[in-house]
Amino acid sequence: MSKARVKITTWTHMRRLIVWQRRSYLVNAFFWTSVFTLPLLRGLIAKAFFDALAQQPAGLNALSFVALTLAVGGASGAVVLGGVIVNAPFRFRIGGLLRRNVFVQLLEKRGAAPLGAPLGDAISTLRDDTDVAVDGVDWSLDILGRTVFIVVALSILFAINARLTALVFIPLSIVLSLTYLLGARLERLRRAARTSTARVTTLIAEMFGSTQSIQVAGAEGRVVAHFKRLGAERQGAVLRDTVTAQALEAIYGNVVSLGTGVILLLVANQMRSGSFTVGDFAVFAAYLSEVAGITQFFGHFLNTYRQTGVSLERMSKLLPENASSHALTIPQAMPLTATARPPRAIPISRDALQTLTVRDLSCTFDNARGIENASFTVRRGSFTVITGRIGSGKTTLLRGVLGLLERTAGEVLWNGAIADTLEPPRVAYTAQNPTLLSDTILENILLGEEVDSGRLERSIHAAVLEADIPNFELGLQTQIGAKGVKLSGGQLSRVAAARMLYREAELLVFDDLSSALDVGTEQLLWERLAQVKATALVVSHRRAALQRADQIVLLGDGRVTAIGSLEHLLAHYPEMQRLWSGEL
Q1: Which domains does the chain have, with CATH numbers?
Q2: Sign of CA dihedral 436, 437, 441, 447
Q3: CA distance 134 to 258
Q4: For residue 16, how far is the Cα from the chain centroid?
């Protein structure tokens, strides 16, 4: 039983990201704090200018006022440009790290482990929720800079008139109170909007991947109706989320504007009484407009902070149950320069197979069905078939041997050495329902490897695919559609077999591949594998495979009940006799 992952707070995630990029964060903080505090100088310059006009000294005049204002404006433009330059890579690195860590955790999952969310939901999370999480970290820089501005500005305003300045806190208190009271509702609406979007994207993926099945069943109308229903639900959920957020923004803006207007009216009244100078009014007017915008931004940031928590929670659901609570924010190098290259894969020794020994292997699937104490040996050049009735555990055993399922007991030995997982170039594997990419036949065989014409020709021939290639519209360059929708079941299986054979692995593992082939094609496939003296481990109940087997591993209820040749098992085991006769 895997240990449940401890849930950590939104701030903990954000803090870890900030610490990871602390140097870049500090540089950003310098620029954006400068951006938000430079208006302080404009207010002080305006105060000095208007006070000078009222007193008519020989000092500050209109020309010097314009020069100082332009200088502050130029400085503001320069720091904004600098902030943008340093901020873009900062955002890219944070978003890249979050997506990378999710992908790393997904790739480390065992092959049969389910994804923590539907495919469409996962895509939506990696695209949209990551951007929200990046905004949460990025906008903390704005909060820092704006907070510095407010502290300094309020200090200056308090020095001018403490009673009027105290009124500034009334709009801020209203904004914070509204955000606190409506925070839970905002989270619920954001979750509902994200979930409804994921349902739509998941259905789109399923429709494109099951076009033929939908047409054969005559279900086009029902599927379209279901799609429209999900679309309407998403429209409503997103609309409620957006309208609530925009309504709060409008309330924040109106509260702040009304508060600012009232304060300025009181300031004007103070000027009439003579206790306020024109310069003091200029400072209040300049600073209050900035404070008003910052107050509104505080409310907006608090909403985003809650949405960031929802997004991080959704990203965490994609991770395996046994992943660390800090798995999302594990520090990694994220170079963004043009010269950066991905790290080279660590080469795996081909280590020519002599024996593959499965010893007392036990593993479970879905915490229920599984294999117990399975033992057998595969020798170089042999053809071993695993067989048994439906539900006897054939595929589970195969995945356990490969390391795609968690092993609860036992071990697998490659030439006498323990092997946790079996991967290329040692092993090539084709699943019971092989998956092809929506690309050309050639790219599905190569999967990114360079073309070796001789090896390609041999793999196509061994997979009994050579007769089909000329019948395709563009030969090997033919696009096969989503999940190989343009191919027949037999062609799909043989393209997958060619992909496996192209690797020239030491051990070829087939999970009931021949079930989609006719008898003649299946026999030819096994004959050609024998000609290249391949070592094969095959799950099958078909006679063509059983007749060619050097040894057969017979399963029953998750256990190995017998091992031997076809003649031996037919002579001594009724279960094998029923399988051979087709009763099972």
Answers
A1: 10-329 (1.20.1560.10), 355-581 (3.40.50.300)
A2: negative
A3: 33
A4: 19
d(CA 385, CA 579): 13
Q: What residue spans of 373-488 are helical by DSSP H?
A: 394-402, 441-446, 453-462
pTM for the full model?
A: 0.66
Q: Which alpha helices (H) appear in 108-168, and where do they start and end?
A: 119-124, 130-160, 162-166
3-state secondary structure of 377: strand
Query: pLDDT averaged over consecutive 10-residue blocks of the chain (584 residues)?
Result: 62 92 93 88 80 60 73 83 91 92 79 63 81 91 89 86 78 73 78 82 75 74 88 90 81 70 73 72 77 75 83 84 82 72 50 91 75 93 92 89 88 90 84 85 88 91 91 88 78 90 90 80 87 88 90 92 93 91 70
Give a three-class secondary structure readout of 513-574: HHHHCCHHHHHHHHHHHHHCCCEEEEECCCHHHHHHCCEEEEEECCEEEEEECHHHHHHHCH
Asked if 396 and 365 touch (Cβ cutoff 8 Å), the reply is yes
Q: What is the pLDDT of residue 401?
A: 92
Sorted by sequence, the CB contacts under 8 Å of residue 201 that are 6+ apart come out as: 120, 121, 123, 124
Tell me how far CA of residue 561 lies from CA of 371, 511, 543, 568, in angstroms: 12, 20, 19, 13
Instruction: Please tell me the predicted confidence (pLDDT) of residue 344.
Output: 47
SS (H, E, C) 273-289: HCCCCHHHHHHHHHHHH
Q: At what angle do helices 278-316 and 10-20 cross, to 10 degrees?
A: 100
**Residue from 18, 14, 27, 17 nearest 86 by CA:** 27
The residue count of the chain comes to 584
The secondary structure of the chain in percent helix, strand, coil, rounded to multiples of 5, reads 65, 10, 25
Cα-Cα-Cα-Cα dihedral of 407, 412, 418, 424, to 10°?
A: -100
**pLDDT value, residue 354:** 92
What is the bridge-based pairing of β-strands 355-365 and 407-414? antiparallel
Structure confidence at residue 465 (pLDDT): 92
In contact, 544 and 514? CB cutoff 8 Å: yes
| CA 51 to mean position of chain CA atoms | 59
- Strand order from edge to edge, sheet including 535-539: 427-430, 507-511, 535-539, 383-388, 551-556, 559-564
